[in-house]
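Handoff note, outgoing to incoming analyst
You'll be picking up this chain. Sequence as last confirmed:
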Amino acid sequence: MRRLLALSEALAELERPEARSVNALTSDRVLCAAVERWLQIAIESCLNIANHRIAARGWTPPTTGREAFLVLAAHDELDPELARRLGRAVGLRDVLVHDYASIDLERLAAVVAQDLDDLRAFAQHAARWVAP
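Most recent structure output, in case you need it:
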């Protein structure tokens, strides 16, 4: 539930119009850092929830973050295409965490503007998994 709440809060913060503006991200370093962090938290929350679901079901643990979503798809817990897109999001999370010095702000703004629906879709699945 805590990870789902963190995901929800990060997605709410990323709804700010300035979070998807290249100009705003370029001119406001604090905003840029916040957007990077919110996106990292959102993606990492999805990954943590996926791994928890896999462990709770007793399925073979994935060897990579990308694979976690594919395991869920293999067990009919996620649509395979959504699983592939979420796997690519893990790649973005890796860039945010490990290659932070070379973040492409146009790509960052585009992800916030166009790709949050995948994280929202995952949140809907996760909410059903934790519902009593």
